[in-house]
Design brief:
heterodimer, A: alpha+beta, 2 domains, 6-stranded mixed beta barrel, 4-stranded antiparallel β-sheet, 13 strands, B: alpha/beta, Rossmann fold, 6-stranded mixed β-sheet, 7 helices, 10 strands, globular, binds adenosine-5'-diphosphate, binds magnesium ion
């Protein structure tokens, strides 16, 4: 019999006017928000993480100023870190190795096209260099990485090779020569795609070349620290902070530098995403609330409009419970319809968002439809419709048959 | 032909239905007692507002009396719960209304199937029976149309088919031809007449004395909620109220 009520409810839904469907906007927006958020969530996390250069290694990064998602790390800092800081950090008992890195922007010329890109150094010493490669988490696609004694040679991020259009349609491959700040360098390698704007567009060269090119002496834009004990990342971090506070003469809480561990950076990412998620959850919650009011309103209206139908049903033998279920199920289905449309739109937004991230951020997120998520949101919207329908359905059920027949 | 000891399907004992209208009490039905036998064709007549519809609703258990008792098949329905009444009404009573009262969102056939849903018949049964009933009222070719696409006469025939859905013992028809012209009204009456011949008890409210005389075998005359007079065809219709003599019409 319940099935019969479903088919009756479907027939009634087919005859509903535009006004009924408009009241579903709340449920629709709520479900769209939830579905798109969750299907984008993972991608969003990966995208933000890769933009911030977070990788899964256990190295500590020290920078003057704050952690910035924009601009090269350590740039625009008045009181920069120095080689002296690097040496002092390395002397800490909890530190295995500390390596200085420099990053600056360079004017790159190739095939008569000029583009500005970040240039980063790698140390001359093999042990230090391996640490940087670990930190960068990059692989070579073509050619090889910078080696000891390499002079006038550079390794380029994937986009120098992959985005021909930047260079007048000509791909840069190992063996070619490019000019950086009017000085010629030979390309010896191209790194594999990472999915981060920063890393895929970087120029890597030996630190001696970098010093010559930019003419700096002592400055360290970034210090990469390998702790002695990887389990004691936090302790090592505190040691470094204490040391730098002393060296730079700043009080605790007023640091003009930042020591970040992978966890700390990941938690920054999660904070950003968490904020977005809370915002969308609030939007979803409010719209579902509005959606419930909308459905209650439509159902109450339709109980009034269909008073006569209720009377007819009762005159041919419908019990109060039959009338209740008919309206209850109709309301549930109304919620479900809002949920279906919302799930379709949410999936679509998730899809477009992923494509967008892949295009603009260079990520390679795969698009997948989360059937479990869709199942639960549909179930949820069905239940929400049902809850909204309880009171109107009770009103319908308790109609006096004779009065109802008068319409 | 009929004997007095035939099975009584409906009995009213001192039935009253009062409505409160502000300070006044409207006595819509005021102490009605009657017995209707199985297979009877009864007409209820009386001026507008005399309580005919209220009495029909009471007989059909759509409404409950303020006072008095109603027996359906010998059972006192005042002891029934609301949902038992609905079940009873769906099974034993078929309603036909002046304004057809079909559900517009459904097709003619679906309208006929509705009462069967509430008695728990499965789809196959419902289909089979609805097809047969649509055939009976000669609307097989229109059964997938919505009521709005049918003429008044056709709609009332759908309503007749619907009233028969659960093979009730009693058909209650409240001015079934009131919204129809004489000719279509006559067709509808032919169907009711036919059903009566097949043994259904029919109770019909009408304004039209000719209609009553042509089809009913007993007429209850209502005035101000009271049964003022009962006239029977077998007694040559006696005298109607206000001294109007009602002659029996030949049944075909
Ligand atoms: N729900 C109600 N509330 C108040 N008075 C009513 C109600 N229903 C019917 N009445 C009154 O009861 C009387 C009988 O009504 P009804 O049975 O509809 O008469 P009929 O069908 O003979 O025209 C009328 O005076 C009518 O106004
Ligand atoms: Mg009436």
């Amino acid at each position: 019999m319940i099935l019969d009520f479903f088919s009756l409810a479907l027939k009634n839904l087919k005859h509903r006017g535009i006004r009924s469907w408009l009241t579903l906007l709340g449920i629709f927006i709520g479900v769209t928000a939830v579905v798109s958020l969750i299907s984008l969530g993972n991608g969003l996390q990966m995208a933000v993480a890769s933009q911030l250069g977070v990788s899964a290694n256990e190295l500590i990064t020290v920078q003057a100023g704050g952690l910035s998602a924009y601009g090269p790390p350590g740039s625009n800092v008045v009181d920069s870190l120095t080689q002296g800081d690097v040496d002092a950090i390395e002397r800490l008992s909890s530190v295995e190795n500390a390596v200085r890195r420099n990053i600056d922007s360079g004017r790159i010329e190739f095939n008569d096209n000029v583009i500005f890109r970040y240039v980063g150094s790698v140390p001359n010493n093999k042990e230090d260099r391996d640490l940087i490669y670990e930190q960068l988490n990059m692989e070579v696609l073509l050619g090889r990485f910078i080696k000891e004694g390499d002079s006038g040679k550079v390794v380029l991020g994937y986009n120098f090779y992959g985005k021909k259009e930047d260079w007048g349609g000509k791909s840069i491959t190992p063996g070619k020569t490019i000019s950086i700040n009017d000085k010629n360098f030979q390309v010896i390698g191209i790194t594999d795609k990472v999915g981060s704007m920063m890393m895929d567009n970087i120029v890597i060269m030996n630190e001696n070349d970098m010093k010559d090119l930019y003419g700096f002496e002592d400055k360290a834009d970034m210090i990469i620290v390998e702790p002695k004990n990887k389990e004691k990342l936090q302790k090592t971090k505190e040691d470094i902070e204490k040391l730098l506070r002393n060296r730079r003469g700043v009080k605790e809480g007023e640091e003009d530098f930042e020591v970040s561990t992978p966890e700390a950076t990941l938690s920054t990412v999660n904070n950003i995403i968490g904020g977005v998620q809370i915002f969308i959850a609030i939007v979803a919650f409010i719209s579902v609330f509005i959606g419930i009011i909308g459905i209650v309103n439509t159902m109450t209206t339709s109980v009034l409009e269909r008073k006569k139908e209720i009377g007819i049903m009762k005159s041919v033998g419908a019990k109060n419970s039959h009338i209740f279920f008919q309206f209850f199920i109709e309301s549930s289905l109304l919620g479900l319809v809002g949920g279906i449309v919302g799930a379709i739109f949410g999936t679509l937004i998730g899809f477009l968002g992923t494509v967008g991230m892949n295009n603009f951020l260079g990520t390679e997120l795969t698009i997948s439809i989360n059937f479990l998520l869709i199942f639960f949101t549909l179930l949820g919207s069905f239940l929400i419709g049902g809850i909204a329908g309880i009171i109107p359905a009770m009103q319908a059920a308790k109609q006096n048959p004779v009065e109802a027949l008068k319409g | 032909m009929r004997k007095e000891d035939e099975k009584v399907v409906i009995e009213l004992k001192g039935v009253c239905k009062y409505y409160r209208m502000g300070d006044n009490i409207v006595r819509a039905v005021d102490g009605a007692s009657l017995k209707i036998n199985e297979g009877d064709f009864v007409a209820i007549m009386g001026p507008s507002g005399s309580g005919k519809s209220t009495m029909m609703n009471l007989i059909g258990s759509l409404d409950v009396p303020t006072k008095g008792k109603i027996f359906l098949d010998g059972e006192d329905i005042s002891t029934f719960s609301e949902s038992d009444l609905a079940q009873l009404r769906g099974k034993k009573i078929g309603f036909i209304f002046q304004s057809f009262n079909l559900i517009n969102n459904l097709t003619a056939k679906e309208n006929v199937m509705i009462p069967m849903i509430f008695q728990g018949h499965d789809l196959e049964d419902r289909n089979f029976r609805a097809n047969k009933l649509m055939q009976l009222v000669q609307l097989t070719d229109r059964m997938h149309h919505s009521p709005g696409e049918l003429s008044g006469g056709q709609q009332q025939r759908v309503a007749i088919a619907r009233s028969l859905a659960n093979s009730p013992e009693v058909i209650l028809a409240d001015e079934p031809t009131g919204n129809l012209d004489t000719k279509t009204g006559a067709t509808v009456m032919d169907f009711l007449e036919d059903l009566n011949k097949k043994g259904k008890t029919i109770i019909m409210v009408t304004h039209d004395p000719d209609l009553a005389k042509a089809h009913a075998d007993t007429v209850y005359w209502l005035k101000d909620g009271k049964i003022e007079k009962i006239t029977k065809k077998k007694n040559g219709w006696d005298k109607g109220p206000r001294g109007v003599l009602i002659k029996p019409k030949e049944k075909k």
